[in-house]
Design brief:
Blueprint lengths: L18 E2 L8 E7 L5 E8 L6 H17 L5 E6 L14 H12 L3 E2 L9 E3 L2 E3 L2 E5 L7 E6 L11 E5 L24 H17 L8 H14 L3 H19 L18 H19 L4 H35 L9 H7 L8 E2 L12 H12 L9 H11 L12 H9 L14 H10 L1 H14 L8 E8 L12 E6 L2 H20 L16 H17 L3 E10 L7 H10 L4 H10 L4 E5 L4 E5 L10 H14 L7 E6 L2 E8 L2 H21 L3 E12 L11 E2 L2 E2 L2 E2 L1 E4 L2 E4 L5 H19 L10 H17 L2 H4 L6 H19 L7 H8 L4 H15 L43 E10 L2 E10 L4 E10 L5 H20 L6 E6 L2 H8 L6 H15 L4 E6 L7 H15 L5 E3 L4 H22 L4 H6 L3 H5 L7 H8 L5 H6 L18 H6 L5 H13 L8 H7 L1 H10 L6
Parallel strand pairs: 1-11, 3-4, 12-15, 19-22, 25-28, 27-30, 28-29
Antiparallel strand pairs: 1-2, 2-3, 4-8, 5-8, 6-7, 9-10, 12-13, 14-18, 14-19, 15-16, 17-18, 20-21, 23-24, 25-26, 26-27
Helix pairs in contact: 3-4, 3-5, 4-13, 6-7, 8-20, 10-16, 12-13, 13-17, 16-18, 20-23, 21-23, 23-24, 25-30, 26-28, 36-38, 37-38
InterPro entries: DNA/RNA_pol_sf (IPR043502), Endo/exonu/phosph_ase_sf (IPR036691), Endo/exonuclease/phosphatase (IPR005135), RNaseH-like_sf (IPR012337), RNaseH_domain (IPR002156), RNaseH_sf (IPR036397), RT_dom (IPR000477)
GO biological process, one term: DNA biosynthetic process
Organism: Panstrongylus lignarius
Length: about 1150
């Protein structure tokens, strides 16, 4: 419900399943089902019957819930209730009207009272006591509940703690037969023991006996040969998994199942413990005083006064603890619980609820709920195959190709392993990245052989296709009863995910290198994203509007999406695109014999998958875009633009009239409908949307149908995080962004007070890392909204609020002063800066001061030009030996002039045989110079290699960044790719041994010093021709930032606001070059907005603005700092320090702040403002 919650059920033990009945539950009543491992099931109800409500109405709600529970065939029910009714039946001193009604209800519904007469009330205040808290149960639960107890434990509530024990003959503690996945604490692993145990197990497997063989390489080769000779790969994979598991069990501790016991709280203290004892003693003394009424009354008053003090101390301790936690939040940990709570990202345990089934009825128990979830996560292929489906399957069966992709190599496998995160949840086997890495370290040949046998035989081992499904609740779906509220994440064995990664990288490389994937798929596509798709949509729409046409944007929702992907359709697409046979066969094996399991405390459901790409797999996204590629290549009519981001499909239609729009739209939907039938996908017309964009005021209705249902028309549409409106004004998007950002700022404000809470440094990081990305998301798409001042005003208003929080100032501070002191660029200027950078990157816009497009940007190599995944050769080696050539390279940037050089030594460092210098354009970076020098060294070696073969060389550089760029296969810098290509050619074709090495700069190395000298000479040489002119993105961003600062500086100079702040910071430059530690007192001085009388008088809070000192002048901050006698002592210290530096007194505010920053800030913070 939406009202105040007054009933709750907490289940702290994770070994119990809980199913919440959504339909029956409300603010004052909660209904849950708890199934046990042995098949017993009981329901628990928590109810609050408000004394201001009609008890008959509340009991009717309870009766409805009880009837629903009976319909579910559950007879065991426990009810905990605050009934607000009194009766002698439950040992109260009186019986009132509500009590009589409750007695009749209990008798009519055969509910049994568990309360016992122990002489203690369940509810007690200073005004009286009563027994209004009831524990009830049905007949079948009477024999299972023991030791009902009214605790005398002191609590901050007026209600006592009622406890009892439920015993289904020990079923709550019985071990289940459900096999759980394990997790290893690799942080505490004994790797030496792991190696020893694993070596012994492998020896037994390969030699059928224990071996004294100590050489791991020999055992590795034995295992590799065993894998090759074994007929059944599934069998050998299971055996290797068992051996690794045995070694893990012997050397790595496991995580235990989480059993939440008693947890301490950070705010509890020994003082509270002593107070609790004192309150408990006082209560007992009061309760035992029966003969002397006056004494009893005195002790009663003492008890309640002590209890009130105890309650207030608890509340204060909680608040103080929270303040301390917020105060400890700094730039080192800004993303802790404070931010998570404010952003609504705190983790919560999964709560299963009753769900609506396809027939409109609701699930009745936990097992049925899990079955409905499984139907959605692992759907069955129940549709009868048509001729088109049979043709797809026939295409897959008959696919033949003589083309085979090359085998995996050890370096490629190692790269794939290193891409995974150690902290990611493992599959059912519990193997994490470090475990697989260790196995690969011990047995690299065996792991490589295993993966290559999988590729050669077209066999994806069954053991790697078993997934554990973890359910995540989607944000905002807590009270929903639709099964789509849960997002299934498949936990798969890491060894299988590595093979998936190797497979899909090969498949996608093949398709992209041949340009066989549609450029209108922007999801899971390198160098593409949401902004790129939105920009394409924007361009199409605005071209149509410019030609006086109307636009129809149709967003389609795919039911099930990834979980419903039709396997034959994916494989048929691979066959159509002539996928290499071994990759095709491995993909085909991947889509067979897949099993998924959902585990809870009492249930385990396993189902064989018949369709779908597992969410959480490495192959899933790639296979999805391969299947979805065909919908983007349909023969759409002219005037239709179709694009997709993963499974989000959008059709944009342009036409002159509404009639033409409707005709084109329905023709397009007909094509999509035929495609969906062929691919066994279902589009949900009810969740799809249409937005009609036009400049016309009056338009005729447009009816578009999909799957026989009309697609609803909307006035505003959210697409990939951006809101579109009918008039194409972006007004809705700006409003939504401001609302979302304001909500986050409001939540942060609760923990960012003036004198305590989040520090300025932490807030600044949160602003840059969370708030600014929200406000500027997809800025190039909607930046035209800034042409309207009301949009700029909305954005600036939100930015001003967070800026005031950062500087810890008063809310009356102007936007210009707040942003300047916070050091953040005005949001509209920042949006235009980001737009300029993006448009420059896309070669479609010129930044003032740079001659575009005359010079080429140094942008990454396009994805279709990337090298084969197996060409990820190791470029840095430590065992150099004695090379023929020892080459030193270096780059240098001096006075914004850039150069690089190389020096070649032969026979160690005795003879310089070649030296070369190169000049780079002034805008180039030092990293570009370092990479260019390495590339030129390789080009020289290439010229030498034509004359001689099988030699060796070392290229030395003092740039660790350059070596990291070359080693990172995910970095596709053009120069780095050229370096990798030359290295490969020299090593493979010329059979040269070439290594890259790092040397420390300026440590007396003759080669490095000479290369450095030559690089500096090249940089300062004004005559040498320029060898490299590509513009780095760092320079583009720097130019854009400079333009933004100039705009900001101009605004600051022209604005009439912030006069006091201008006295300290006359320019933007004077502020951004200073590191400022914000405090509330300092901000009051720098802005003039504070507790001085002139400020308070200005806002009509006090009558007179004059200071109370003898000078009787307006109490401005200038008066307080320089003249007021009240602050003569702290001022004298500052005066003496200034004069000791040879300066006169007084100085201006700007002189004090710029020349004596620390002393002036200390003086301000030392002022006792209570004197004001």
């Amino acid at each position: 419900g939406a009202g105040r919650k007054r009933a709750a059920i907490v289940v702290p033990k994770s070994n119990l399943d809980v199913l919440m009945y959504i339909s029956e539950s409300c603010e004052d009543m909660v209904f849950v089902e708890i199934p046990l491992a042995d098949g017993n099931v009981f329901s628990v109800i928590s109810a609050y019957l408000c004394d201001k409500n009609d008890i008959k109405q509340d009991l009717f709600t309870l009766e409805t819930g009880l009837q629903s529970i009976r319909y579910k065939n559950i007879t065991a029910v426990i009810i905990g209730m605050d009934s607000n009714s009194r009766s002698n039946t439950w040992y109260d001193s009186i019986t009132n009207g509500r009590g009589k009604t409750m007695e009749d209800f209990l008798a009519a519904k055969s509910l049994f009272l568990l309360n016992e007469n122990d002489g203690l009330p369940t509810f007690q205040t200073k005004r009286g006591k009563s027994n209004i808290d009831l524990t009830l149960c049905t007949y079948s639960m009477i024999s299972k509940i023991f030791r009902w107890h009214n605790s005398d434990e002191e609590s901050a509530s007026d209600h006592r703690i009622l406890s009892f024990v439920i015993d289904f003959k020990g079923s709550c503690h019985r071990q289940t037969s459900i096999k759980r996945s394990c997790r290893y604490k690799t942080k505490y692993a004994n790797w030496e023991k792991f190696d020893q145990v694993l070596k012994e197990e492998v020896s037994k497997f390969t030699l059928n006996r224990n071996s004294n063989e100590q050489d791991l390489n020999a055992i590795d080769l034995l295992l590799s040969n065993k894998i090759k000779s074994t007929y059944d790969l599934n069998e050998v994979t299971e055996k290797i998994t068992d051996m690794i598991s045995f070694a893990c069990s012997a050397s790595i501790p496991r995580y235990k199942d989480s059993q939440h016991g008693k947890k301490s709280v950070p705010w509890w203290s020994t003082r509270l413990t002593d107070m609790r004892k004192k309150v408990r003693k006082s209560r007992r003394l009061f309760q035992r005083t029966n003969r002397n009424e006056q004494l009893r009354e005195d002790r009663k008053n003492l008890y309640y006064s002590l209890k009130l003090e105890y309650t207030n101390c608890i509340r204060k301790a909680k608040i103080d603890s929270w303040k301390d936690y917020c105060n400890a939040t700094n730039q080192e940990n800004p993303w802790n619980a404070v931010y998570s709570i404010a952003a609504g990202k705190q983790k919560s345990s999964l709560l299963l609820t009753t769900l609506c089934k396809k027939d409109g009825t609701y699930t009745t128990n936990t097992e049925e709920t899990l079955s409905v979830i499984m139907d959605k996560c692992v759907p069955k292929d129940l549709e009868e195959d048509t001729e088109s489906h049979k043709q797809l399957k026939l295409t897959v069966e008959q696919y033949q190709s003589t083309d085979h992709d090359k085998l995996f190599d050890k370096t490629e496998i190692q790269r794939a392993i290193s891409d995974f995160n150690e902290l990611k949840a493992p599959g059912y086997d519990g193997f994490t990245k470090s475990i697989i890495e260790r196995f690969n370290f011990d047995f690299p040949n065996s792991l490589c052989t295993l993966y290559n046998e999988c590729l050669s035989r077209g066999c994806f081992p069954k053991i790697w296709k078993k997934s554990i499904i973890i359910l995540l609740e989607k944000p905002g779906k807590k009270n929903s009863q639709d099964v789509s509220k849960y997002r299934p994440i498949s936990l798969l064995p890491l060894a299988g995910k590595i093979l998936e990664k190797l497979l899909i990288s090969r498949v996608l490389y093949r398709l992209r290198s041949r340009k066989q994937l549609s450029p209108r798929q922007f999801g899971f596509t390198p160098q593409s994203g949401t902004v790129e798709e939105l920009m394409q949509v924007k361009k199409f729409v605005e071209n149509g509007l410019a030609n006086k046409q109307q636009i129809l944007m149709i967003s389609l929702d795919v039911s099930g999406a990834f979980d419903a992907a039709y396997w034959p359709a994916i494989l048929a697409q691979l066959a159509k695109k002539e996928c290499p046979k071994n990759l095709f066969n491995l993909s085909r094996s991947y889509f067979s014999d897949r099993f998924a399991t959902i585990n809870t405390a009492a249930f385990s459901l396993t189902r064989q998958a018949e369709k779908g790409c597992p969410q959480g797999s490495c192959c899933g996204p790639g296979f999805w875009i391969i299947m979805y590629d065909s919908i983007l290549k349909l023969d759409y009519p002219p005037g239709v633009f179709a694009c997709a981001f993963a499974d989000d499909f959008l059709a944009v239609i342009s036409a002159k009239t509404e009639h033409d729009l409707q005709m084109l739209a329905n023709r397009t939907m007909y094509l999509i409908e035929l495609w969906s039938i062929k691919n066994k996908l279902l589009f949900n017309a009810n969740k799809s949307q249409i937005l009609h964009v036009t400049n016309k005021r009056n338009t005729a209705p447009i009816n578009v149908y999909l799957m026989g249902k009309s697609i609803p028309m909307v006035n505003e549409m959210k697409l990939l995080g951006v809101w579109f409106d009918r008039k194409w004004t972006w007004k809705v998007h700006v409003r939504k962004v401001c609302e979302r950002t304001s909500q986050l700022i409001n939540m942060l404000s609760r923990s960012a007070k003036v004198y305590w809470g989040l520090g300025s440094d932490a807030l600044e990081i949160i602003y840059k890392g969370a708030i600014l990305p929200i406000m500027t998301y997809a800025a190039p798409v909607w930046c035209s909204a800034l042409s309207r001042q009301y949009n700029v005003d909305q954005l600036r208003s939100v930015q001003r609020r967070i800026a005031i929080r950062i500087i810890k100032g008063f809310r009356t501070i102007s936007f210009y002063s707040a942003t300047l002191l916070a050091g953040i660029i005005p949001i509209d200027i920042k949006i235009m800066e980001m737009t300029d950078v993006y448009m420059t990157f896309k070669n479609s816009f010129d930044i003032p001061g740079l001659f575009y497009p005359q010079y080429e940007l140094d942008i990454p190599v396009p994805a279709d030009k990337w090298p084969h995944p197996s060409d990820t050769i190791l470029t840095i080696e430590e065992d150099h030996g004695i090379p023929l050539y020892n080459i030193f390279t270096d780059g240098s940037k001096l006075d914004n002039q850039v150069g690089c050089a190389l020096v070649v030594f032969q026979n160690d460092l005795n003879e310089v045989v070649h030296r070369q210098k190169f000049k780079l354009a002034d805008w180039c970076s030092n990293n570009q110079a370092e990479l260019l020098a390495i590339l030129k060294a390789l080009q020289w070696l290439q010229s030498v290699s034509r004359l001689t073969k099988k030699e060796s060389a070392i290229i030395n550089t003092d740039s660790e960044v350059s070596l990291a760029v070359i080693s990172d296969i995910h970095n596709h810098n053009k120069t780095a790719e050229d370096i990798r290509l030359l290295l490969k050619r020299l090593r493979n074709e010329s059979q040269w041994t070439i290594n890259l090495a790092w040397v420390k700069a300026h440590r007396g190395n003759a080669g490095n010093e000479l290369a450095d000298q030559l690089a500096k000479e090249a940089a300062l040489d004004t005559v040498m021709p320029t060898s490299f002119i590509k513009v780095p993105m760092s320079y583009v961003k720097r130019q854009a930032r400079l333009t933004s600062f100039n705009k900001w500086a101009q605004e600051w100079l022209l604005t009439p606001q912030g006069k006091t702040t201008k006295m300290f910071f006359p320019s933007v430059q004077s502020r951004v070059t200073m590191r400022l530690s914000h405090s509330h007192q300092l901000t009051m001085v720098l802005t003039g907005h504070g507790k001085n009388k002139l400020y308070l008088h200005r806002f009509h809070i006090i009558e007179s603005p004059n200071c109370l000192c003898k000078l009787q002048v307006p109490q401005s901050w200038h008066h307080i700092l320089f003249d007021c006698p009240f602050f003569e002592l702290p001022r004298s210290k500052l005066t003496r320090f200034v004069m000791m530096q040879g300066r006169g007194w007084p100085l201006t505010e700007r002189q004090l702040f710029s020349d004596f920053t620390d002393q002036f800030i200390n003086f301000i913070n030392s002022l006792d403002l209570n004197l004001l």
